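ARCHIVE CARD
CATEGORY: sequence design from structure
SOURCE FIELD: tokenized fold
FIELD CONTENT:
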């Protein structure tokens, strides 16, 4: 068990497959009992990151909305 701070660039890997996604997914697995910390602004930063990808055409609007749901 460990304690980890995730910034928004790490946390977004939970919603978009990119390098590092498997490691972050394993890190937040409840079976491993790690403590995960984020700052209060992280949800807003993740939303912005996902919709930047929509604007760039690398993510569909429905995928971004589903990830935020």
């Amino acid at each position: 068990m460990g304690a980890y701070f995730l910034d928004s660039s790490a946390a977004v890997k939970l919603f978009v497959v990119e390098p590092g996604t498997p490691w972050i997914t394993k890190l937040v697995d409840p079976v491993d009992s790690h403590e995960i910390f984020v700052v209060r602004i992280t949800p807003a930063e993740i939303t912005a990151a996902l919709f930047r990808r929509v604007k760039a055409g690398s993510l569909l609007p429905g995928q971004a909305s589903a990830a935020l749901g």
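CARD ANNOTATION: The chain has a mean pLDDT of 93. Residues 9 and 46 are 8 Å apart (CA to CA).
SHELF: design records, drawer C
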